[in-house]
Specification:
homodimer; about 350 residues; alpha+beta; 6-stranded mixed β-sheet; tRNA_endonuc-like_dom_sf (chains A, B); tRNA-intron lyase activity (chains A, B)
């Protein structure tokens, strides 16, 4: 005997009586208990039961209409119903239990903008263990950087394909250059959009990996070409004989306000023992090397870093692009969100996003 | 005996006498002849000869200073000297002859914003055959879409690495759906950001590849989920029973003015026998299939298409990202530039960009 539910748009739940508690809640993790054997279902849960034929129909308490799957979903009950339903159905089909991230579905819901609490495979709502805090967006929904939380972000594209991203804090650390001394006052020339350093000590490139040698010159010490960013950092430390303010000013002429933001991240990475080099070929700001002993024994860079202001708003399409590219070149995508300097910190939040197959 | 040149900033050339004509021009493709054996060199050509030690020095005719390589380049003679020199040196080291894309260096220079004419390997300026029209930009230089020309675009990043792109017109063509008829007035529901089509004929998905089936339902004909774009196209042709204007209005609510632009490109691709599906996972607007007979025998999509207005201005970093990703998934990146409808055309220009190793 299949059951029917009663949908009340006033509080956006579907109530089901009969033996609903045992049938849907206890054994299959839908809804939350009311009095007796009655349960309350979120709209996506009710839609899923209709979809599977487990619930016969849902009666709208206002007008009395009897709604099948089709009629129920075309009412789109609740916000973002379509994308939430698609992800709910996808994760259920992959063998996960999941509940709306709110009381009374879960006792201690994850905060932030989480839509669902997803339980570890084999476990359910009653086991008290959450695997993922899941947020669901359509591909056209803006995601402010301030709303990032550790957990899973599911993006539903316009053709209902779902891409899952694992979002986490990811502070870069490394051991590069811990003992290396910088040279003092190397001669350098400032060109339109780069700097040439004449005859620096070999170690500047070969050990601490600053700059890029110009090829084909017969000198004891190679001529190095540095980016304005590297040059500003070196000038600030007296390693090259340019005025730091002049180099920074040139940097701002070339790339506007991005320059100072990138310079803060560059400096923070160097201070963490990580070597940042340009990420241009990957469309990122930096590619980073965590443990550079010498350029001869250089491995592959591990991270791609993109720099944004703290108030940045992500478009999911750009997230897909960045993360996909990083994955394709076996690196992890990290976003550096640059805010005001805070006491005791560098004002930068580091977040990694990686593709996830649940 | 090495020669010296005379640099005149008034006309930005370096003149060299002695046997310069035979030594630099006739056998090695630098500069253009003046009277007698004298030649004129562009600043990058003179810099390259200084760099290689072939030219001893360049004397500035104004002040009389004798300039070596270092002094000459820190004057940055001419626009964009640094990036032009780096690319000139790179292509020379790869065995190419190249000349400034202007008279009198070449008799029939390529137009547009080309900086150099690059000759086929083994051929020089006198052979009258140009392999590439080469344009050089730094990674921070804007490239208006209106300036795209068939040829090569060299982008020099902040650390002097060079990425070469082959730029060409690339009109998509295909054989998909040439004979297929669309259904008539299938029932459909418009949801917030997608459309559900109820029980359409199987061929709508399986032959003409519209939409995406919802899984797991026991029906003779599958329920299809379509993007607003697909739905607008189908509604305009009476294939589904929604008002075209209503679907388009919803599309604009969801993605603003991009919607109409994407719809024009979607329709143009379908008319060309190409099937466009969403490119979200690749950060593009569409992935396209040229020869779809049935979804069962579907190969891989060949193109990634990104839609821009005709007045768009590219940032080289975004070009690097798009092209790199396309290359990584073995597809070609195509940009669809959407302008005003023109008489007899669809107002769309199609350009492909591919990585090139010269």
């Amino acid at each position: 005997m299949t059951l029917e539910g009663r949908f009340d748009a006033a509080d956006d739940v579907v109530r089901v009586g009969g033996d609903a508690r045992q049938r849907y809640h206890d054994s299959r993790g839908y809804g939350y208990p009311l009095s007796g054997n009655e349960i309350a279902l979120a709209p996506v849960e009710a839609a899923h039961l209709l979809y599977r034929g487990d619930l016969e129909a849902v009666v709208d308490v206002d007008g009395g209409e009897r709604l099948g799957f089709r009629e129920f979903i075309s009412r789109e009950p609740g916000d973002d119903f379509g994308v939430r339903f698609l992800v709910y159905a996808d994760l259920r089909s992959r063998g996960f239990y999941l509940s709306p991230a709110a009381e009374p579905w879960v006792a201690d819901p994850p905060g932030g903008a989480a839509d669902f609490a997803v339980f570890p495979r084999g476990k359910g709502p009653g086991d008290g263990e959450i695997a993922y805090a899941l947020r669901i967006v359509g591909e056209r929904t803006d995601v402010p950087a301030a709303e990032l939380r550790p957990g899973v972000l599911a993006v539903v594209d316009e053709e209902s394909e779902i891409t899952y991203f694992e979002v986490d804090r990811r502070d870069p650390t490394g051991s590069s250059g811990a003992d290396a001394a910088l040279p003092d006052g190397c001669e350098a020339d400032l060109l339109a959009d780069r700097v040439v350093v004449w005859e620096p000590p070999l170690e500047l490139y070969e050990k601490t990996f600053y700059g890029q040698p110009l090829e084909g010159r017969e000198y004891d010490e190679p001529t190095l070409q540095c980016s304005l960013l590297e040059a500003a950092y070196l000038a600030e430390r007296g390693a090259i004989d340019l005025e730091p303010a002049t180099v920074r000013e040139r940097g701002r002429e070339v790339e506007g306000e991005r320059f100072d933001r990138r310079l803060r991240v560059y400096a923070a990475l160097r201070e963490r023992g990580v070597v940042p080099k340009t990420g241009y070929k990957f469309g990122a700001d930096f590619r980073t090397y965590a443990d550079v002993e010498s350029v001869e024994n250089l491995g592959h860079s591990e991270l791609l870093v993109r720099v944004h202001p703290a108030g940045y708003v992500f478009e999911p399409r750009d997230l897909a692009l960045d993360v996909r590219l990083a994955h394709g070149v076996r690196k992890t995508m990290v976003f550096a969100l640059v805010g005001e300097d805070s006491a005791g910190g560098d004002g930068i939040e580091w977040w990694s996003l990686e593709r996830l197959t649940p």
